[in-house]
Amino acid sequence: MKYLIKYFIDFIVLVCLYAFVFFRKWRAQGRDRLLVNTLMYAYLSLVLYFTMMPVIASIPFMLNHPHEPMNLVPFIDVSLGRGDFFRQVFLNIIMTLPFGFLFPLTRGKRAKFGITVFFCFLMSLGIELLQPFFDRNSDITDLITNVIGGVLGYGLYVIFKPITFWVLKCLKGR
After folding, report:
1. Which residues are within 8 A (CB) of 47 and not within 5 positions of it... i.e. 6 or more apart?
2. Is 139 helix (H, G, I), strand (E, B) or coil?
3. Selection from 137, 127, 17 nearest residue 25 by Cα
């Protein structure tokens, strides 16, 4: 129960931030913008949950644990025979697939492939650099596979772009 309260605090902060800051701003921009930005916010909140939470309860103890350096040898898990390597690669790709799809929708016509991949890289790099402060492991393989997931997500965005923009246009017209 004590462990769940740590997560609960983070979720309360995320809900308040959404309700009092972002929701008002996005609602004023129209239903289509509200939907897309809310989906991106929910997605990023889930990424935060799986990669770094609990955050707020961990802040006082960020420097009170042994630091492990980031693994900078790509795909070393294969050569070391770690059993969950393929699962980890798959989950990292799946985790950032929505970013590659949703990011261009939040940016509108300004989101090109390079910009989307660059921001996916920045998000992943930020996570990997911050994880050691929250007593988690960092790995260059995660960074690589996250970017691959963003690239695949952008591919899905390109494939489904006509349908997606039709749905958003219908929402805007309501």
Report:
1. 95, 96, 99, 123, 127
2. strand
3. 17
CA dihedral 88, 95, 136, 16 (to 10 degrees): -160
Separation of alpha carbons 50 and 44, rounded Å: 10
Q: Is the Cα dihedral 160, 165, 168, 170 positive or negative?
A: negative
Residues 7-22 have a mean pLDDT of 96
- Give the pLDDT confidence score for residue 1 in this predicted structure: 66
Q: Is 84 in a helix, a strand, or coil?
A: coil
Other beta carbons within 10 angstroms of residue 89's beta carbon come to 19
pLDDT for residue 17 is more than 90 = yes
Residue 62 φ/ψ, nearest 5 degrees: -55, -35
Residue 5 burial (C-beta neighbours within 10 Å; 0-12, 13-18, 19+): exposed
Please tell me the least confidently modeled range out of 78-87, 102-111, 152-161. Answer: 78-87
The one-character DSSP state at 10 is H
Higher pLDDT, 39 or 168: 39
State phi, psi for 81 to the nearest 5 degrees. 70, 30
Residue in the block written with tokens 């911050």: 130
What does pTM read for this prediction? 0.90
